[in-house]
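Notes from the 1:1 (GR / supervisor)

We went over the backlog. Supervisor wanted to see one worked example end to end before approving the batch request, so GR pasted a single chain during the call. The sequence is below; no edits were made to it. Supervisor asked that the structure be written out right there so they could see what the output format looks like.
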Amino acid sequence: MNTRQESKHDPRKLKLAEAGILFVLVLGVAIAVGVNVASRQDETATVEVAETVEPTLLEESTVVAESVEAAQVDPLATTVETEGPPAPRYDATASAAEIYRDGEAAYHVRAYDEAADIFAIYVERAPDNAWGHYMHGLSLWKAGAAEDAEIALRAALAISPDHTKSLVNLARVLLAQDRAEDALPVVEAAAVLMPGDAGVQRMTGRVLHNLGRPDEAIAAYSEALAVDADDTWALNNLGLLLIETDRCGEAVAPLSRAVILAADNAVFQNNLGMALERSGHPGQAAEAYTAALAADAAYAKAEVSLARVEAVADLVMDVRAPEGPTAVGDEATYEVRVRNRG
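Structure output shown during the call:
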């Protein structure tokens, strides 16, 4: 009995038990502290990322996006990309005849750019129609695209080599490009096909005129007028050529006829004024120049010519007005003025 109690309360066993309990307590405290420290470190790291990295990246990204948009994006290009390509002018149900009529209507109201666009569509629908290529070329030429007009007119002639209107207008387009030598065989081919056509003869005269063959050009203009005496441009061109060859007196008749037929044409009126002035009729020349300016107030040649003949008329009045002994002095003054004016 006593032996059991002594073994149960053995001091060595009690010390071991106390040491074990103390170890467990210390270990628990250490684990708790470690978890708490780790938790605090994680929170600190999360805050640092949120405060330093995210705002910086977002700000830089925003700046880059704004600068690229401002520097590289064209608002018009953006609009086009957003809306897509424009709708076609004609859908598949539109007939070639309808398109041709629209192009012709645009041409007749002098909407030449629009006419050229419409006839470009037409020749895609009807590529074998020479008239379509002809009207396409004519519209392009009127719109100021001489080189493209030449291509279209040659396309018409490739389909129909005897298409006289294409030949005549091709010659006109070549002249507009200062290619009179290239225009000559073209207009000669037209003359063979239509020898009695006033327009063909007039164009022949223009080509010969530009080639420096005045006598042949005068003959061609005369042939045109034999067919059509009221061909105003043949009358004007003949008159101009006569002026250039110092036959101003002969130029008055055709130019007078031209202005009777087309009084509102500033070019005709100006050329008549030149013929009258150079043939010794400054007063009538002034009337013609005045009429030219009435037809076209911005016609600079007529303005300069009118000022010139009016100055001469003033000098003549200065000479004629004085009477008696002072006339000689005034006449001398007149001579000096004329010399000074060259």
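Supervisor's comment: The chain has a mean pLDDT of 77.
Batch request approved.
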